Amino acid sequence: MGTKISIIGAGNVGSTIAYTLTVTGAASEIVMIDIAQEKLLGEALDISQASPFSKSVNVYAGTYEDAKDSDIVVITSGIGRRPGQSRLDLAQTNINIIKSIAPQILKYAPNAVYIIVSNPVDILTYEFIKISDLPKGRVFGTGTSLDTARLRTRLSDYLQIDPKTVNAYVLGEHGDSSFIPWSLARIAGVPLAEFHAAVNPLTKLPLELDYNEIENYVCTSGSSIIKRKGATFYGVSSCVAYYCRRIIDNMDTVMVASTILEGEYGITDVALSLMSVINGSGVKCTVTPTLTDEELQKLHNSANVLKGVIAQLEF
């Protein structure tokens, strides 16, 4: 039996997710839903014509009713971030959009795993979990998955090594208060701080790590891309496709994901990114390795920043 994925929102992000899922053959059926009907029809038709060169995938424009019995629902609807605008500036507008979407999609896909992509993703994930009344693990946000991909990309640039061998994470808010727990960073199991010394001394590594530059690269990549081309969508689409494959394969995989905390690291009632085990049911559990005192302080700061925003919004 095939897998059905519904994508709400046919803008740059939603359409690129649909295309990525099509060419990777992650699903047998992809339903695209958007209020902008002409663009929706054009995107669905364009993507469907890529299917002869990939696994057989039925891609089409539909309605909420067509999302019936979806295995996964990906929500990308909302107003995109503009140059100079923070993700949190978008909060109330996109909260209202999610509030209008939720009852319509939940009516037809009550058993799906929901992946929230729209920004501010932590706020919207928190909202969707609260209003959907679904089990917490069945709803999660992409959170800092894209930030983590950027971190691994930059470390691979420095070390000239396959980014797949880099195990490093960005935690907290998908935004200005995110942070890198350097104490957890590993290269193929070797602590990052020890990697230079662990490499054969006859092999000269290209660059010494500049931690401040790496952190700045991760924090500013999104705004740099938006300034140059107006939006970011390839990186996050690959992240979502990877989540979908892990859910479809029902294979326990540790990834970062945004979900509501229930006491992890002493934090409750806010959604932010921690390492989590993802499988066919969504977020199976969070993973809470020991953080340094400084890293723990940064995580609590991120939680407090988000809670401060939540307190000012109308849900």
What does this structure look like?
With 315 residues, the chain is an alpha/beta fold. Helices cover 42% and strands 19% of the residues. The chain contains 9 helices and 12 strands. The strands form 3 sheets. A 6-stranded parallel β-sheet has the order 3-2-1-4-5-6, sandwiched between helices. α1 (12-24) packs across α8 (234-249).
What brief labels describe this structure?
315 residues; globular; three-stranded antiparallel beta sheet; six-stranded parallel beta sheet; single chain; alpha/beta; 9 helices
Classification by helices and strands: alpha/beta
Beta-strand residue percentage? 15-25%
Termini Cα gap: 38 Å
Order of helices and strands: EHEHEEHEHEHEEEHHHEEEH
Query: If you compute it from the alpha carbons, what radius of gyration comes out, rounded to the nearest whole angstrom?
Result: 19 Å
The gross shape turns out to be: globular
Quaternary organisation of the protein chains: single chain
Tally of DSSP helical segments: 9
